[in-house]
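Hi support team,

I submitted a single chain yesterday and got back a structure, but I'm not sure I'm reading the token output correctly. Could someone confirm the output below corresponds to the sequence I sent? I've pasted both exactly as they appear in my results page.

Thanks,
R.
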Amino acid sequence: MFTPATQKDIDRYDRAVDSAIATCGGDLRGALKALIIANEYLEEELRQVLDEVSAHAVMMPPRRDVA
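Hi R., thanks for writing in. Yes, this is the structure output for that exact sequence:
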């Protein structure tokens, strides 16, 4: 379920944007490029984790509930 951003969230995003731009010396294009690269890295890392989870789920025997 989608929940809209609160003012607190928006303020946090604004601070994160300011930080990313400052980290890149005020270069907006550089900040955007850095964030895209970071996002691609995280997507790849997530894909690898999901692949590992999927591989383990297939190899694990079914659970037996003990009453």
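A quick pointer for reading it: The chain has a mean pLDDT of 90. Let us know if anything else looks off.

Best,
Support desk
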